[in-house]
C-alpha cells in the first residue's frame, strides 16, 4: 500500500517526452463525458464518513457481460491524499460492496460485503465470524510525504472514493475463470491472483489476457447511522469513455488503452484520460443548455478534460434549517481533480488555474489553502436572506471535500441532528435578522478577489482556445430531521440526500458558449 500511495504523486508529476501529434481523427470513438444515467468507466463517490456514529456502504455494479478489473482509490478529504487502494474483479453482471466503519478509535476500517475477488485480500484483521477487513492508512501524508494537514489516523475518517475500470478480461482465460462464481458458490480462484501479480502472467505483462475498458459500471453509496436510525443514499458520478481508442471497434477488441496496475506498485488517476492513443489527446464532451462542446487537451493536460466535464460556474441546493422540527442540512462539495492543481507536491510552487491557492507542504498552515467562495441564501418565497452587518457572504472552501453546515439561525439543534458531524465543516455567517428556516442556497464559483480586483475563475484553454469557467465540483445535500416531540422511547428521525445542481458556461474569444 505504501508503494501505491507514494507512486500516485510521483506519476502525477512525471515529465513527459515530446508529444507526437499524428493528426486528428475525423471521427472519434468517444470523449470523456458525464453520463446522465450513472453508467461509465470511472465512478466518483463525493463522500464517505465514519464520524458522528456514521458508517458508509458503497457498491459498484457491472451491467455488462464482460469480466472487469477495477481499481478503487479512497482519498482523505483535506488534500486528497490516498488512504487505501486495491483492485476488485467483477464477473459479468456482478456487484461488489464494502462498508467503511470505525470502532471507537481514531482509525477507519473497510470490510467487503461479498465474495468478489480483490487484490490484495482483506485479511489484515479478522472478525469473529471469519470475515477479513483492513484499516485506512495515513502513509501518504506522514514522514517524507507530510503536508500541512494533521498526520494521524483521524484524517482517514472522511473523504471521497474513485473507482476506475482498468480493462476487461478475455473470456475463458485464467483470470476470467478464477474470478467467476461456480454455480451458487463463490469464485474459487481468488487466491491465484496473488501469484498472477507476483510470479506468473501479470508479473510479466500487465495487459495479459486483457482488452480495453468497455464501461457499464454504476455506483451507489449509503451513509448509515444505526443509533439515529437514519440513512442517506446517493448515486456516484459516472464518467463515460474515460479511456477509448477510435480504432477499437467493436469496443473491447484491442488492448491499446488498458491501464492495468498492481495497487501495491503504482496507481491510476483522473489524469489518465485518453481519447486516442495515437495522438495522446484527451477530449471532453460538455453538454451545455443549447449546444454540445467538444474540447481537446494534450496528453500532459488530460486532467483538464476531466475538470472541464465537471466544471460549474455555480452550484446550488435546497436546504432545511428549522430548529422547531430539529432540521439541519450539511452540504457536501467535493473537488475531485483539485490535488492536480493545488497539492504542492504535484503542482509545484504556485497553484494552477482554475484554483487560486496551494495546499501547503509540511510546516505550512492549512489557512493558506483558503478559497473564499461567495454564497447567497433565499427563503421559500425567493427573498434574499442577507448576512449580518460586518460579515461577508462567503465560505472558506480550503479542503478537497468540504461540508457546509446550514444550521438554524435561531434555537439549537441536538448534536444527533447533525447529519454528518464532519471535521471539514464550515458554518455560514449569522443572518441580518429574521430566520433562515428553509429555501435554497447557491455558491458562486465564477468570481473571486484578486487583490482589489474581482476576477473570473477559468480552466486552462483547450486546443481551440475555449475556456471552461468556474470550478470542477460534485456533491449533495444531506438533511436530517430529529423529531424531539416524539413519545419517549420512540425513534423518530428522518433523513435524505439530494444531488446538487449546477450551471455551466465557457468562453471562446470572450464570447459566451451559451
Low-confidence stretches are 9-28
Q: Level of helix content?
A: under 10%
**Sheet with the most strands, sense and barrel status:** 8 strands, antiparallel
Integer average pLDDT: 89
Walk me through what this model shows.
By secondary structure, this protein is mainly β. The chain has 2 domains: 2-11 and 34-280, no CATH class; 314-512, no CATH class. The chain is 9% helix and 36% strand. Strands 1, 2, 4, 5, 8, 11, 12 and 15 form an 8-stranded antiparallel beta sheet that branches. The longest helix is centred in the N-terminal third of the chain and has 11 residues, at 2-12. The two termini are 45 Å apart.
Salient structural properties:
514 residues, mainly beta, 2 domains, eight-stranded antiparallel β-sheet, 35 strands, 9% helix
Short description:
With 514 residues, this protein is mainly beta.
Show the helix and strand layout.
Blueprint: H1 2-12, E1 33-34, E2 42-49, E3 55-62, E4 67-76, E5 82-90, E6 95-101, E7 109-112, E8 118-119, E9 125-126, E10 132-135, E11 158-169, H2 174-178, H3 192-198, H4 201-204, E12 210-211, E13 217-225, E14 230-235, E15 237-240, E16 282-287, E17 292-297, H5 302-310, E18 311-312, E19 314-320, E20 327-334, H6 339-342, H7 344-347, E21 372-379, E22 384-385, E23 394-396, E24 401-406, E25 425-427, E26 438-444, E27 447-450, E28 453-456, E29 467-468, E30 471-472, E31 474-482, E32 493-499, E33 501-503, E34 506-508, E35 511-512
Amino acid at each position: 500500500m505504501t508503494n501505491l500511495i507514494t507512486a500516485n504523486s510521483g506519476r502525477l508529476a512525471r515529465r513527459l517526452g515530446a508529444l507526437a501529434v499524428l493528426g486528428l481523427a475525423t471521427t472519434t470513438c468517444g470523449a470523456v463525458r458525464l453520463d446522465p444515467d450513472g453508467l461509465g468507466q470511472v465512478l466518483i463517490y463525493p463522500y464517505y464518513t465514519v464520524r458522528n456514529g456514521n458508517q458508509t456502504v458503497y457498491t459498484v455494479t457491472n451491467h455488462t457481460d464482460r469480466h472487469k478489473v477495477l481499481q478503487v482509490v479512497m482519498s482523505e478529504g483535506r488534500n486528497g491524499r490516498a488512504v487505501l487502494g486495491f483492485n476488485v474483479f467483477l464477473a459479468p453482471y456482478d456487484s461488489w460492496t464494502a462498508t467503511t466503519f470505525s470502532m471507537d478509535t481514531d482509525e477507519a476500517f473497510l470490510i467487503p460485503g461479498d465474495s468478489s475477488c480483490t487484490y490484495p485480500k482483506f485479511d489484515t484483521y479478522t472478525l469473529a465470524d471469519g470475515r477479513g477487513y483492513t484499516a485506512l492508512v495515513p502513509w501518504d501524508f506522514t514522514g517524507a510525504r507530510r503536508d500541512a494537514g494533521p498526520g494521524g489516523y483521524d484524517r482517514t475518517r472522511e473523504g471521497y472514493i474513485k473507482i476506475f475500470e482498468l480493462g476487461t478480461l478475455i473470456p475463458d482465460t485464467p483470470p476470467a475463470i478464477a474470478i467467476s462464481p461456480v454455480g451458487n458458490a463463490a469464485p474459487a480462484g481468488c487466491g491465484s491472483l496473488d501469484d498472477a501479480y507476483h510470479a506468473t502472467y501479470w508479473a510479466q505483462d500487465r495487459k495479459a489476457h486483457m482488452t480495453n475498458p468497455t464501461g457499464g459500471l454504476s455506483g451507489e453509496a449509503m451513509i448509515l447511522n444505526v443509533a439515529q436510525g437514519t440513512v442517506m443514499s446517493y448515486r456516484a458520478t459516472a464518467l463515460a469513455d474515460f479511456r477509448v481508442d477510435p480504432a477499437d471497434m467493436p469496443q473491447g477488441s484491442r488492448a491499446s488503452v488498458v491501464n492495468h496496475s498492481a495497487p501495491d506498485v503504482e496507481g491510476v488517476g483522473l489524469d489518465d484520460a485518453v481519447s486516442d492513443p495515437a495522438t495522446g489527446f484527451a477530449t471532453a464532451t460538455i453538454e451545455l443548455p443549447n449546444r454540445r462542446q467538444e474540447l481537446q487537451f494534450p496528453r500532459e493536460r488530460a486532467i483538464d478534460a476531466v475538470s472541464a466535464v465537471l466544471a460549474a460556474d455555480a452550484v446550488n441546493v435546497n436546504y432545511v434549517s428549522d430548529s422547531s422540527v430539529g432540521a439541519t442540512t450539511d452540504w457536501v462539495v467535493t473537488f475531485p481533480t483539485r490535488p492536480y492543481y493545488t497539492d504542492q507536491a504535484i503542482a509545484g510552487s504556485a497553484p494552477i488555474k482554475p484554483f487560486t491557492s496551494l495546499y501547503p507542504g509540511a510546516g505550512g498552515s492549512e489557512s493558506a489553502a483558503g478559497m473564499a467562495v461567495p454564497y447567497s441564501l433565499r427563503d421559500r418565497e425567493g427573498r434574499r436572506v442577507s448576512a449580518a452587518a460586518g460579515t461577508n457572504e462567503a465560505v472558506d472552501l480550503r479542503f478537497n471535500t468540504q461540508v457546509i453546515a446550514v444550521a438554524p439561525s435561531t434555537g439549537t439543534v441536538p448534536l444527533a441532528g447533525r447529519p454528518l458531524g464532519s471535521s471539514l465543516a464550515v458554518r455560514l455567517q449569522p443572518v441580518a435578522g429574521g430566520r433562515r428556516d428553509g429555501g435554497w442556497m447557491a455558491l458562486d464559483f465564477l468570481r473571486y478577489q484578486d487583490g482589489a480586483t474581482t476576477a473570473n475563475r477559468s480552466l486552462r484553454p483547450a486546443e481551440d482556445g475555449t475556456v471552461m469557467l468556474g470550478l470542477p465540483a460534485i456533491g449533495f445535500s444531506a438533511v436530517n430531521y430529529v423529531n424531539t416531540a416524539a413519545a419517549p422511547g420512540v425513534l423518530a428521525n428522518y433523513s435524505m440526500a439530494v444531488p446538487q445542481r449546477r450551471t455551466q458556461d465557457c468562453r471562446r474569444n470572450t464570447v459566451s458558449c451559451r
